[in-house]
Design brief:
By secondary structure, this protein is mainly α. Helix content is 65%, strand content 1%. The radius of gyration is 28 Å and the shape is globular.
């Protein structure tokens, strides 16, 4: 008679099957990790070495193990979104990895900067790399779920406006003004030595253009955003009244530093309001306050620093909308805040209107047409209190579909309409000319590439391009990684371009199909630094601060006040 109890024998068999299944899954994950790791080097053209491949293989194995389980738990919509994201990452990595360029790519000739050839095997490796990115995204979601449960306070505490860390007691968020002030002034203090070392701030070629326009030394136009240029002029005049234009540049730099530091401090408060622990908040603050890249941008007189700060505010507001599933739009204060941020995105950079317009369209489609009374996904535990909406304090009632859609339409239309009215009839009434060529950078670069690479053109198209710029000049001034060589070339007929914008778009569209590969290469070479994975900008602005472009006749010179 069998002396082993039946229950114990069944438990032993289940454990054996479990270990066997786990071993099989680990072996399968290890086998799958091999092509995924190799795809990283094939797609991105990264330098292969045993150590690099071993590290990539280990990462691939971990993300396959972690991501597969998350895939089984994800909903259909999440799976589709992640697949689209993974494929986009793989395609951009493939295109960026095929770029051949010189160190000084901005001024590089088209014979030095070009696109490499593609192979049939790229399809396989791109799909493998897409799978790797999918597993990484799923693993990130799993890590987020783990950290959210580990660092966030209970839902009941958040519903009462409370916040807590992992180890500390629940604390009210009413102390957030103090947190903001400390983070704000602390960040500014950490950045101050950079201003003293590069006093009155970093002045670039684009800065000189804005300074000259602000002081009336050249005609004002919208090549750089007009509000940005007028603000520079205000600072310069105040500084000159107090002593010099040098002081005016310093005033601008200090104001910009305070504004950007305030946005970084707001991020800390926003995270605290969402229940993030004090340890993580300290790391986030240190990231912005101590890394030199943020300080160098904050002291630079260019529109990118304030634009990046406003974009961060815009991203946080969009997160609030998504987290509350549109419910925060029921709050007039939030709508006003989002409208103000949207206007900032539009007016601080000329192409910001496209970013904000696209985001508003996506928001309207995502939340404006949700079923009436449907605030979003119901909590898994009906007994657990609902988490608050995006602003972090208290819950908001669901908005019926018509009112929600009207709210989106009104706020978005008012912002974009105000921008169109001011930059259109408003600028015309004030005598501020537009610079249309700034809005045609990619089409102009692609059309110029057709001339340079002797693409297919009709006689009419050739004559049109010759009128813009003599055909023999294109090869001399064309720079694959920047359209500035063409649009600012001597002989480029700006007046003709301004008067024939529609005809130019027609010529550009007609040449697209016969010269598809030339168009693709031109687009990738000009824009890839904005989307290529792992690329580092090498135009000199990231590696250090270029203060050589100064206006000595205005008394604006570089000084190191720390010496």
């Amino acid at each position: 008679m069998d002396s082993v109890p039946t229950a114990q024998r069944d438990e032993t068999q289940r454990n054996a099957r479990s270990w066997l299944g786990m071993t099989g899954w680990m072996l399968l994950a290890a086998v799958a990790a091999l092509p995924l790791a190799q795809s990283f080097f094939e797609v991105t053209n990264a330098v292969w070495s045993p150590i690099a491949f071993g590290a990539t293989l280990a990462v691939s194995f971990v993300v396959v193990v972690a991501g597969a389980g998350m895939w089984l738990r994800a909903g259909a919509g999440t799976r589709v979104a992640l697949c689209v994201y993974a494929v986009a990452c793989a395609v951009t990595a493939l295109l960026g990895g095929r770029v051949v360029r010189t160190e000084w790519y901005y001024f590089g000739h088209y014979e030095d900067n070009y696109m490499g050839e593609f192979a049939i095997s790229d399809v396989y490796w791109t799909l493998a790399f897409a799978l790797l990115m999918l597993m990484i995204a799923l693993s990130a979601m799993r890590a987020y779920d783990f950290l959210a449960g580990r660092f966030a306070p209970p839902a009941a505490a958040r519903a009462q406006g409370l916040s807590s860390g992992r180890h500390g007691p629940v604390r009210p968020v009413r102390r957030q003004p103090l947190v903001f002030v400390l983070a704000w002034l602390g960040t500014f203090a950490c950045w101050l030595p950079y201003l003293l070392a590069y006093y009155p701030g970093a002045i670039y070629e684009d800065s000189i253009v804005s300074i000259e326009q602000a002081l009336g030394m050249r005609d004002l136009n919208d090549h750089h955003p007009v509000p940005y240029t007028l603000f520079i002029g205000l600072c310069l005049r105040v500084g000159n009244a107090l002593g010099s234009y040098q002081l005016g540049c310093a005033i601008y730099t200090v104001v910009q530093m305070l504004a950007v530091a305030a946005v970084a401090a707001y991020l800390v408060v926003w995270l605290r309001r969402h229940g993030i622990s004090r340890v993580v908040l300290a790391l986030v603050w240190a990231y912005f306050a101590l890394l030199p890249i943020f300080a160098l941008h904050a002291i630079s007189m260019w529109k990118d620093a304030p634009y990046a700060a406003v974009l961060l505010l815009f991203a946080l507001a969009l997160f609030d909308v998504a987290e509350s599933r549109g419910a925060v739009l029921h709050k007039p204060t939030f709508c006003v805040k989002l409208a103000a941020i949207t206007l900032g995105v539009c007016f601080i950079r000329n192409n910001g209107v496209y970013v904000s317009g696209a985001c508003w369209l996506v928001l309207a489609l995502a939340y404006g047409f949700r079923r009436a009374g449907d605030p979003g996904k119901a909590p898994e535990n009906p007994q657990e209190p609902q988490e608050p909406s995006g602003e972090g304090q208290g819950s908001s009632p669901a908005i019926p579909r018509p009112r929600r859609l009207v709210a989106f339409m009104l706020v978005g239309a008012c912002c974009l309409g105000a921008y169109a009215a001011i930059t259109g009839p408003g600028y015309a009434a004030a005598g501020i000319p537009r610079v249309p060529v700034e809005s045609y950078g990619v089409p102009l670069q692609q059309a110029s590439a057709v001339v340079v690479y002797d693409g297919q053109m009709t006689d009419e198209q050739r004559d049109f391009m010759d009128t813009l710029l003599p055909l023999e000049r294109y090869a001399e001034v064309y720079k694959p990684c920047s359209v500035d060589g063409v649009k600012w070339a001597r002989g480029f007929d700006t007046a003709f371009f301004n008067e024939h914008q529609r005809e130019f778009l027609q010529v550009w569209a007609e040449m697209m199909v016969p010269n598809a590969r030339i168009y693709l290469d031109a687009y990738v070479l000009e824009t890839y630094e904005y989307w290529s994975i792992g690329d580092v900008q090498r135009n000199g602005h990231i590696d250090g601060v270029n203060t050589k472009a100064t206006q000595e006749e205005l008394g604006i010179v570089e000084e190191n006040l720390l010496e």
